[in-house]
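With this grant's support, we have settled on a layout for protein records. A representative record follows, to show the layout.
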Amino acid sequence: MNNNVQSHIDRAADLSKEGKYVPAHFAIKKALRKEPNSIPALIVSAEIQLHSGKQIDSVDTINKIFDFEPATFNSTLQLKLANICFENELYFLAAKLYEWVRSKKRATVLSLYRSGISMRRLGSMYSAEQRLLECIKLRPEVAAAYLQMGHVYKATGHIDRAETYYKKYIALSATEKGAGYWSLADLKSYVFSDMEVTKMKRETELMEDNLPQSSALYFAQGRAAEQKKNYSEALENYNKGNSIQARLKPFHAEQFDQVVSELQTVHGEENPARSSEKPIPILIVGLPRSGTTLIEQILSAHSNVEATDELPFLERIALYLEMNGGYARRLSALSEGERKLLRQQYLNAVSPYLEEKCDYFIDKYPGNFLHIGLIKRFMPEAIIIDARRDPRDTAVSAYRQLFNAKGEFSSSFDGIYKYYQGYLAMINHWRSEYPDQIKTVNYELLVSSPNQEIPALLDFCGLESEPGCFEFYNQKRAVMTPSAGQVTQPMYTSSIGQWHHYEEYAQDDMLRLESLKEVK
């Protein structure tokens, strides 16, 4: 590489660090014009694209880099590429690169930490545990690794170990204890002592200007108040925590409504060509906290179905279409060639999550209700499951949950109502366009009458009944959603009607939400 090209790369990297993405983009273009296949230049280009909001372009650049056999790169380039893959949530590629770096004995504390997270997101819990333990061995004072270890043990059902590591995190963390207290609360089974509640209140005063941590502390205190059946105090804390979340992640209801309205102009196709190729995706859609994870556990217990993670790949395709002509408009006009390409891109993105040769896999991403028309365009054989729960219980459960990402609508009952309205409008539209191709599973019926509801669910998916689907809680697979502690035990009905605890304090909201039960 000549010095002139390197100077352009260095300048682009410096400008990107300063947040000056437009001049950074032009600087890296100069380098790539001179050397189009320069790996250092392509890596910096991917970084600039991601940080300037062009994630699709960033992923495309990463895919181009992988055409040059990154296993042969030096460890410095592998590490840089691994980090940009990690930031793009390309965990399979990131994990592979971090392992190559580690094999050359060039691993750093950060690379081991990120490798552990990548492995956890891929469901490789033993490898995640080992990398995080290596990280802790190198730097035992780094609090974040203990938090991630807690998440690993929570996902695998080792609740006692999760508690231990969350408490270690709280003890070590100087400014982010809220994340640890909320993680304890989110175990669902953990009961806070009076002393811990006092510490949380003191920490909340100290963290007043740290909005993310203040919010987490309020949510944790809400759970602590619930444990004492003090629902008035609990709601007060949830209100405070959600008020902060609304500032950090505002819900743009008008923009959401516009997306729903535009997608309602997209129509289904008569007799689309269905492929006989396997595997076939089973999309589980629904509002968060509506029973999607329970349905996933039941289906993934079948010998011919594999679970994955909450996959963002359909959403990324939708974003790409939106940026290149408008989502609804492009969706209605996809050519046969584009459909084949999107199908292959989707399956390629999913394949790292599939370890077994099953005929079906689960794509459980609640927001995919917006993208049913999309997957039906390039995979008409896709199976769609609509998870439905009493809107009042769904709303209260979502309002009490601190979501790490997304979930912007859940910071107010008004936002939840509007989002639920949009969800129903979208499901009803897709149902009219794809008759008999969407199965609604009612949470209350499922937990009350599993011997009737589970066979009906399996039959809709074209699956033979298996005993494991009725004893889904005996699975050893990791669960990485807020429901982790709840779906690893037999079904129970105690979650039905929990909204009554808050009826006295949010009467108007509960009445308004109840009206959504009548919408068909």
About this structure: The chain has two domains: 3-201, 255-266+276-518.
